[in-house]
Amino acid sequence: MNGKLVIFNHPLIHHKLGLIRDEKTGTKDFRQTVSEISMLMAYEVTRDLPTVEVEIQTPVGIAKCKELEKQVVIIPILRAGLGMVESILTLIPTAKVGHVGVFRNEETLEPEQYYAKFPDIIKEATVLVVDPMLATGGSVCHTFRLLKEKGCKDICYVGLVGAPEGVKRVQKEFPEIDIFLAALDEKLNEKGYIVPGLGDCGDRLYGTK
What is the pLDDT along the chain (209 residues), one digit of tens a residue? Predict the structure, then answer.
């Protein structure tokens, strides 16, 4: 079954995207707005998570309720992906968090891994890979390969801004995985940055430039 590509069309997401695209937006407001967009997206991404029926004792009787069938694991791609984690945990406080650390080789534009650690339950969990920018797709595809090697079957990607080149690469290499984006931009430039994009998300989140 082929995965779907979802570009969110929500007025609050559009409004907040404008704020983080603005080069005049400072670190504090940028970080807060990335978190807000992530929460809005996560609410929709998790809409179809499978549930099971359980019986709950209320103060006055028995209620038939629903709970998540599987645990959720959030995998941020370091370091920019960290900016999306806390807001998703606000929605799913029982979620576990793994980490994948990669940096992009500026000559080849391909990812080089320096860290990876996953919760033990990841094989049976619903896995949300989060990274604000889907540019060349190298880091995301590298992460998907790691997860597949761990036996993960229920994986999706959640990002803020994507380029057509990155989307096509993910769809070619992992056609079964759903892609959720707040915006699909025009293209990549010669340095592999998304145009118009929002600059280097990690630097803007943490004030390193």
Answer: 678 999 999 999 999 999 999 999 999 999 999 999 999 999 999 998 999 999 999 999 999 999 999 999 999 999 899 999 999 999 999 999 999 998 877 777 678 899 999 999 999 999 999 999 999 999 999 999 999 999 999 999 999 999 999 999 999 999 999 999 999 999 999 888 999 999 999 999 998 86
Q: Which DSSP letter does residue 4 get?
A: -
Instruction: Show the domain range for 194.
Output: 5-206
Tokens 């559009």, residue located: 14
Q: What domain count does the chain have?
A: 1
The strand pair at 126-130 and 154-162 is best described as: parallel
Q: Name residue 63's beta-bridge partners.
A: 56
Alpha-carbon distances of 115 from 6, 77, 92, 101, 207, rounded to whole Å: 29, 10, 25, 5, 22
Report the candidate in 34, 30, 10 with the shortest Cα–Cα distance to residue 22. 30
Domain of 38, CATH number, reads 3.40.50.2020
